[in-house]
Specification:
alpha/beta; Rossmann fold; eight-stranded mixed β-sheet; two-stranded antiparallel sheet; 8 helices; 23% strand; globular; disordered N terminus; SAM-binding_MTase; signal; SAM-dependent_MTases_sf; Methyltranfer_dom
């Protein structure tokens, strides 16, 4: 009995196992790991833009969630890329590219005669993206390190700029919108993808959703026109914008 009691005490005092340094995100798509709160822009109220609370940036520690096996089943990314209608020889940008889930699909669409510029704030994300591109033998993706107000896109270069569940996390939307407008070619488009705030059944935290009304409130006064929209994705808005006169 004494031996059993001693063993029980020892087990109770044993330290708990250490957590993994690269935690596996939860299956539900809810921005699994948040990076530190972005520094506020002194020119506007900290943490808000056009009445919307800015979400935190997803950390590279949650990168594996971006390439989860069931992502196409959940979001129908195949259909999304059909709607983008990229063509060989075009120049496309994946803004907030993460570890390159969409960048590599875009690279296949534009072919060797085209290019994809993959922009992200976190060098760790870009390293993972480059490793995936190298492993797949993809050579037409160029990574660029962005800053909170500067996606580092060359002017008059992008036939398409894709933002998938990224725009709502931007720390300085005003400056990024201006930079994107400058980066578009004459007939260039922005493809904005955001989880639908209007749909309570979309299993995403409210902070990581946007309504169409809010998107238009932010884009239209800043030199953009709504070109078209597609409502056939399971969880997300897909809205195309062009530069307005």
């Amino acid at each position: 009995m004494r031996r059993l009691l001693a063993l029980t005490v020892l087990l109770g005092c044993a330290p708990a196992p250490e957590a993994s340094a690269d935690p596996t995100p939860t299956p539900a798509p809810s921005a699994p790991v948040d990076a530190p709160e972005p520094k506020p822009n002194p020119e506007r109220e900290p943490g808000t833009f056009e009445g919307r609370t800015l979400a935190q940036t997803m950390s590279y520690l949650g990168a594996s969630w971006l390439t989860r096996d069931n992502r196409d089943d959940e979001e129908n990314t195949t259909l999304l890329h059909e709607q983008l209608a990229l063509a060989p020889g075009q120049s496309a940008c994946d803004l907030g590219a993460g570890n390159g889930y969409h960048s590599l699909l875009m690279a296949a669409a534009v072919g060797e005669s085209g290019q994809v510029i993959a922009s992200d704030l976190q060098p760790q994300m870009l390293e993972r993206l480059q490793a995936r591109a190298d492993a797949a033998g993809i050579t037409n993706v160029r990574t660029v390190l962005a800053k909170p107000g500067d996606p580092a896109l060359p002017p008059n270069t992008c036939d398409l700029i894709l933002l998938v569940d990224v725009y709502h996390e931007l720390a300085d939307p005003e400056r990024v919108l201006a930079a994107m407008r400058a980066a578009l070619t004459e007939d260039g488009r922005i493809a904005l993808v955001e989880y639908r705030e209007e749909d309570p059944d979309v299993p995403i935290k409210p902070l990581h959703k946007m309504s169409k009304a809010q998107i238009l409130r932010e884009y239209l006064p800043r030199g953009f026109a709504l070109d078209s929209q597609f409502d056939g994705l399971p969880w997300q808005h897909l809205m195309f914008f062009t530069a307005s006169d």
